[in-house]
TrEMBL record:
Gene3D superfamilies: Cytochrome P450 (1.10.630.10)
Name of the protein in question: Cytochrome P450 family protein
Coiled coil stretches, renumbered: none
GO molecular function: heme binding; iron ion binding; monooxygenase activity; oxidoreductase activity, acting on paired donors, with incorporation or reduction of molecular oxygen
Length: 63
């Protein structure tokens, strides 16, 4: 999602970033036991995005 930079930056970009962080935390919390093979690294920038997320899961999802 593009938000622009400088004086043309989207007013809702900080809100959207916060909502994606909350959503990601909730998704990870609700997944069955999972493990990440190695930590993902992020480059510095205005907006962070995951290019590749490797993970494995064990067990069955119970809802």
């Amino acid at each position: 999602m593009a938000f622009g930079v400088g004086m043309h930056r989207c007013l809702g970009s900080h809100y959207a970033k916060m909502m994606f962080q909350v959503m990601g935390g909730q998704v990870l919390k609700r997944l069955p036991t999972s493990s990440s093979r190695r930590p993902e690294r992020f480059a510095d920038g205005e907006v962070y995005a995951v290019r590749k997320l490797r993970s494995g899961s064990r067990g069955s999802a119970q809802g």
